[in-house]
Amino acid sequence: MSELVDLTWDFIGERYAPDIRREETALQSGLTAYTGVTYNMNHDGMSGTYIDFPGHIAQTDNGLYADNCPLDMLYRVPASVIRLAKRSGEGAVNADELEQAFGGKVTTPALIINALADAMEPSDIDRRSVYLDNSAIQWIIDSRCKLLVSDIYESKALHGVFPKLFGAGVSTVCMPVNLHKLPVGTVRLTTLFAKMPQVTQLPCRVVAEF
After folding, report:
1. Neighbouring C-beta atoms of residue 45, cutoff 10 Å
2. What is the pTM of this model?
3. Phi, psi of 139, rounded to the nearest 5 degrees
4. Is 99 helix (H, G, I), strand (E, B) or coil?
5. Can you tell me the mean pLDDT for 56-85?
6. What does the alpha-carbon distance between residue 127 and residue 131 come to, in Å, rounded to a whole number?
């Protein structure tokens, strides 16, 4: 039997707290009576774990959105898992480190980078104090993967991780958790979200299977 690991963080807003309001409506007919429950929701695209398509940056918009993303990019996608043991403030991760940790080149359509070992929350380290350098970004692009799940991305200097990835057609999942629970090697990755038209960034549910 397969083991499933939920890689999804709590629904926490990065820019403002989600506002979810419950409403109850009494419904009645000659045959039945019950109370319907509905929700009004106002939340940031960066709430909890979220996916960025290349169009999250206007200059790299390639027409891939939440409503037209192909299912074979989202459902049970083979994903390579790379694990490092970086701590807060350790700085750049380069291509050689990624390749050595994995034991070779990545050939799967998705990639998971667990650079922070068993850090339990995305906020457990000084923000952007561990990051992917330009050689690591090029190594990821050269692998031809199209979906990257990682607990590190950009530096404090903002050296252009996302424009490079998005320009190469790589979508990213940010703020994942439980990456340390995955085996190094290959898993199957499923990413779920609402089919919202023309949206290039939105919260998602991410599950790994092995």
Report:
1. 17
2. 0.94
3. -65, -40
4. helix
5. 98
6. 9
